[in-house]
UniProtKB/TrEMBL annotation, chain A:
Keyword Protein biosynthesis in record: no
Alphabetized InterPro entries for the sequence: FAD/NAD-bd_sf, FAD/NAD-binding_dom, Ferredoxin-NADP_redctase_2
Flavoprotein among keywords: yes
FAD/NAD(P)-binding domain span: 3-278
Lineage per the UniProt record: Bacteria, Bacillati, Bacillota, Clostridia, Eubacteriales
An example Gene Ontology molecular-function term: oxidoreductase activity
Coiled-coil portions: none
Protein name in the entry: NAD(P)/FAD-dependent oxidoreductase
Alphabetized UniProt keyword annotations: Flavoprotein, Oxidoreductase
Pfam families named among the record's database cross-references: Pyr_redox_2 (PF07992)
UniProtKB/TrEMBL annotation, chain B:
Species whose genome carries this gene: Alkalibaculum sporogenes
GO MF term list: electron transfer activity
InterPro entries linked to this entry: GlrX_YruB, Glutaredoxin, Grx-like_ET, Thioredoxin-like_sf
Protein name: NrdH-redoxin
Record-linked PROSITE patterns: GLUTAREDOXIN_2 (PS51354)
TM ranges: none
Organism classification: Bacteria, Bacillati, Bacillota, Clostridia, Eubacteriales
GO annotation, biological process: cell redox homeostasis
Domain Glutaredoxin: 3-62
Signal peptide (UniProt feature, chain positions): none
């Protein structure tokens, strides 16, 4: 089945968008793990609702989206690829296809606690295997991460190099059975030692662990924690500035069929603004799909 | 005017940079650094890094799809 729209993120922006797409008779799939809003103890500045917990708001929003006809799945998105006029969304459990996408996962708060990553950006430290992986043909490379998102990036090295190490930086692996099998079948080395820094000369040369040991490496690709809207945007080629996805007043990005709403676009990080942007994105997608069907 | 674009096929930013040049009727030489090792070495030597795309506009090196600088160098 090809969905009219896949909304990535089930926070206020994504859920609000779904009300407009479903009411516009668009087949709508919402994919997301827990929203940041769930952690909010109490919200008192959302107009019309004097007081509610984040959990109450999200639960009501999901129920409302389902009542309107949206399909909601609790999965982690690990990659998005554009194929002609459709988008293939891979999760840790399935793969889905849609004519349009709304990025609404909020903003990643995960910081990679390793020294010098910024110094070697483009010089051994990279964030997109599909883009820069080719430079490491037959070389020793690493993926920095511990989730299915990291394994998804790791698979992109097929045909480029087999000398791959997964660096979890002290984290336990949080991956599904398919990823575990892939790591085992392909004899991927897994290093779980906590990392202190990366270092080298003009280019990256080694990883230094907190234990004081070092390991030589030519390229290290970062896919740490859960991928955010801005990670997907960067890989799709959507314009991003200062970690904010650039959108116009219709919530459209510069790639046809890709919209973004909520905290990932920057600005005032409030439930009210996210709901407003989501509504706008949902409405804009209706117009967009009508245009491409003509 | 000499414009060279160093890119890889699977990099969406490379496609975007090339489409932008084409839409402005700018002719350019294209190097696929995933296959052409000499071009890859040349690109790293010119830009001091391994990220794509890299544009060489009259010996001025631009890393990434930096539209502002591309416009400035091409007078767009």
């Amino acid at each position: 089945m090809i969905f009219d729209v896949i909304i990535i993120g089930k926070g206020p922006a994504g859920l609000s968008a779904s009300l407009y797409t479903t009411r516009g008779n668009l087949s709508t799939l919402i994919i997301g793990s827990d929203s940041e809003l769930l952690k909010a103890h109490v919200i008192e500045n959302y107009c019309f609702i004097p007081r509610a917990t984040g959990k109450e708001m999200i639960e009501k929003g999901i129920q409302q989206a389902r009542d309107f006809g949206a399909k909601v799945v609790e999965e982690e998105v690990i990659g998005i690829k554009q194929l002609d006029n459709t988008f293939i969304v891979s999760t840790n459990q399935n793969s889905y296809v849609a004519r349009s996408i709304i990025l609404a996962t909020g903003k990643s708060k995960i910081q990679v606690p390793i020294k010098n990553l910024d110094i070697f950006e483009g010089k051994g430290i990279h964030y997109c295997v599909a883009c820069d992986g080719y430079f490491y043909n037959g070389s020793s490379v690493g993926i920095l991460g511990y989730t299915d998102y990291a394994i998804h990036e790791l698979k992109e090295f097929e045909g480029i190099t087999t000398n791959i190490t997964l660096y979890t930086n002290g984290n336990e692996l949080v991956v599904n059975e398919e990823s575990k099998k892939y790591l085992s079948d392909n004899k991927i080395k897994i290093n779980t030692s906590p990392i202190l820094s990366v270092d080298g000369g003009d280019f990256l040369e080694f990883v230094e662990f907190k234990s004081g040991e070092q390991e030589k490496i030519e390229g290290l690709f970062v896919a740490y924690g859960t991928a955010s809207s801005t990670d997907f945007a960067r890989n799709l080629g959507v314009l991003v500035e200062s970690n904010n996805i650039i959108v116009n007043k219709e919530q459209e990005t510069d790639i046809s069929g890709v919209f973004a709403a909520g905290n990932c676009t920057g600005g005032f990080a409030q439930v009210s603004t996210a709901v407003g942007e989501g509504a706008n994105a949902g409405q804009s997608i209706k117009k967009y799909l009508r245009t491409i069907k003509q | 005017m000499s414009v060279k674009v160093y890119s890889t096929p699977s990099c969406s930013w490379c496609v975007k940079a090339k489409d932008y040049l084409k839409s402005n009727n700018i002719s350019f030489e294209e190097y696929d650094v995933s296959k052409d090792r000499n071009a890859a070495t040349e690109m790293v030597s010119k830009s001091g890094q391994r990220g794509v795309p890299v544009l060489d506009i009259n010996d001025n090196i631009i890393v990434g799809f930096d539209k502002k600088n591309i416009d400035k160098l091409l007078g767009l």
